[in-house]
Structure formats: C-alpha cells, structure tokens
Amino acid sequence: MRILLDECLPRPLRRGLVGHEAATVQELGWSGVQNGALLRRAAADGFDVFLTVDKSIEFQQALGDLGIAIIALRARSNDIVDLEPLIAEVLTVLPTVRPGQFIRVPAAAR
Fold first, then answer.
1. Distance of CA 23 to the CA centre of its chain
2. What is the pLDDT of residue 107?
3. Burial 54-67 (b: 16+ CB within 10 A, else e)
4. Is the CB of residue 101 less than 8 Å from the CB of residue 70?
5. Cα separation, 75 vs 97, whole angstroms
6. Fold of the CATH domain 2-105
7. Which residues on adjacent β-strands are paired with residue 70?
8. pTM of the model
9. What DSSP string describes 91-104?
10. What does the alpha-carbon distance between residue 94 and residue 86 come to, in Å, rounded to a whole number?
11. Higher per-residue confidence, 3 vs 59
12. Separation of alpha carbons 78 and 60, rounded Å
C-alpha cells in the first residue's frame, strides 16, 4: 500500500510503516499544497492513504470523491514520541481501508 505522510508529521515516522511504501509531502516537493489539491494529486499519483494529524480535514473535503483514504492520528502533539505508539494501530487498519474512508487512530491513554 502507498502511504503519503502529511508535512505536519515527522519524516522518521514512516520507518514504522513496515511492508508499505511511504513517502512524505516534502520529499515529493508538494510542501505548501493545500489539502484538497494535495489529496487529488496524491490519489492521481497512486497513493492509497494520506496520513495526517490535521483535525479538521474530515470536514473540509468531500472524501468520497477523492479516491484516497485518510487516517488521522490523534495524539497530544505531532512529536514522534507521541505518534509512534499509534503506528501499530495504523498497521492494523491499513488492510481494510478503502478510498474515501476517514479513520481516526486515537492516542492511547497515558
């Protein structure tokens, strides 16, 4: 599965996405592209999932029309120490995710 990490996520987070092809917005040269255009570009480029911490993206986009699934990580911050524990759950949901779906992966209680 091809996964695009939003520019607000730390790049090293992709190391945990074992068995999947993960790229960052920055390395593709797409930094600064607004969410709607970014999601359309990602889908056209063959990405299956957009991984983000953007809390409002679910309400900003017509997800069913985009051709890409969105997984939103819910953590205290976008620091890697807060996000890495969520990757196991991301790996669990990836096999069932479908284009147009929005999935929240909640932070574990600490």
1. 10
2. 39
3. beebeeebebeebb
4. yes
5. 20
6. Rossmann fold (3.40.50)
7. 50, 102
8. 0.91
9. HHHGGG--TT-EEE
10. 13
11. 3
12. 20
CA–CA dist 41, 90 (Å, integer): 22
pLDDT tens column, 34-91 = 888 999 999 999 999 999 998 777 767 666 778 899 999 999 999 999 999 999 999 9
| Strand order across the 102-105 sheet | 21-24, 2-5, 49-52, 69-73, 102-105
Cα 89 to chain centroid distance, Å, stands at 13
- Written as six digits, the tokens of 38 are 């970014």
Domain ranges, ordered by start, for the chain:
2-105
Please give the pLDDT value at position 62.
66
